[in-house]
Amino acid sequence: xxxxxxxxxxxxxxxxxxxxxxxxxxxxxxxxxxxxxxxxxxxxxxxxxxxxxxxxxxxxxxxxxxxxxxxxxxxxxxxxxxxxxxxxxxxxxxxxxxxxxxxxxxxxxxxxxxxxxxxxxxxxxxxxxxxxxxxxxxxxxxxxxxxxxx
Length: 150
What we know:
By secondary structure, the chain is an alpha+beta fold. It folds into two domains: 11-65, CBS domain Like; 78-144. It contains five helices and five strands; from the N terminus they run H-E-E-H-E-H-H-E-E-H. It has helices at residues 11-30, 51-65, 81-88, 92-100, 117-144, and strands at residues 35-40, 45-50, 78-79, 107-109, 112-116. The strands form two sheets. Strands 3-5-4 form a three-stranded antiparallel sheet. The protein starts with 10 loop residues before the first helix and ends in a 6-residue tail after the last helix.
């Protein structure tokens, strides 16, 4: 089984990423075509890229500039129950329970369950939205009870 070690960017990498992100963001805003050519200064090589690839690079640089680790996963990818549990931040048995309760769609390949990455991310976002709503409700209840008054 392959284990991926995710590392946070160093402070130096974060600083450089911030500078690069700012410059790339401005450059992307000026590009009107659906592809562009970039040049690697050290080698003089020119590479034609789809504009969406540059936008993705911009997202990576933005995450790095905030010191966040990141991972690129093709959207159509299916993940194992273990990987899905890691993404959501729960145990594998709890994730299997969610699958059995039809809270997340999945397919079976032999005896193994596979979950679309986009379905995992959709569920994770739904849970974040629900948590936010509950926190707001709690704050409103506390305010109505006068718990914020001094």
